[in-house]
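Lab notebook: predicted structure, single chain.

Context: the supervisor wants predicted structures on file for every construct in the current expression panel, including those that have not yet been purified. This is the next one on the list. No modifications to the sequence; it matches the entry in the shared construct table.
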Amino acid sequence: MPPWDESRKRNLALRAVSGVVLFPVAVWFTVLGGLPYAALVGLTAALSAAELVLMSGGMGLAGAYGAAVAGLFPLAALAGSEGSLFPTWGAPALAAAAVLLLVLLLFRRGPPEAASRQVAVIAFSWLYCGLLLATAVGLRERFGTGWVILAFVVTWANDTFAYFAGHAFGRHRLYERISPKKTWEGFAGGVAGSVVGALVTRWLLLSSELSPAGAVVIGLGGAVLGPLGDLAESMVKRAAGVKDSSRIIPGHGGLLDRIDALLFVAPWVYVCAAYLAHLL
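Prediction complete. Output recorded below exactly as produced.
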C-alpha cells in the first residue's frame, strides 16, 4: 500500500475528528430513546435518501417528497408493537405514499419516459434508506440501548480495523471492479474488529442477554454484511458516476457514505435480538 502522504494523513485526521463528534452524539440519542432518537434516525434516513436521489439526477418536488417519506419509516417503527417492526397501518400508509408519488410525477415537466427512472430511485430510497434504518429504531424500542450500541460497535470496529489492516498489510484486492482499495487483508482485519467489538459490548452491556457464542455469531455476520453494505453503496455511486454521496461529513463524504455498512448490519442485529439471543 502507498505510504502515509500528507493528503492521507489529513483525511485520517478528518475521519478521526468526525468520528469523535458523531459517535457520542449517536450514543447520547440512543440512550434517550423514544421520539428524540427516532427523529434523529428519521432525519438521517431523509438526508441519505436525498443524497441518493440527487446522485441519480436531481431532486425536484417528487424527490423532496420521496426523501421526506423515507424519513418517516423510522418514526413509524417507533409505533410498532412487540413482534412487529411497523404498526398495522404501515402498509396502507405506504400504499398511499406510492399513489401520491405517482400523482406528483404525473404533472412533472420533461419526457414521460424519465418518470419511471425517478419512481424507481425514490422507491429504492424508501427501502434502502428508510426501511433498513427503521430497524435501528425497532432495535432500541423493543430490545434496548445495548443492542443498538452493539450494532454501532460491530459496524465501526469493522471499518476501523479494516482501514488500518488494509493499509498495513493489504496486497490482494477484494473486489476491484467495485472498490479498488479494499483488500482481503483489510477484510480479515475487519472480521477481527467486529468480533472483538461484539464481545466487548456484550461484556459491558449485554452479559445477561447474550452469550459469548451469540456475540461471536453477531460479530461474524456483521463482518460480512458491513463490507457488503459498503460495496453495495459503492456500486450505486459508480452507477451515478460520483465518488462520494455528498460532502456533508468531513473525511467521510456524505451521510450515506457513513452509514452504508450500518444499513446492512442493523437488520442483522435486529434478527439476532429477536430470534437468536436466548437460543445460543
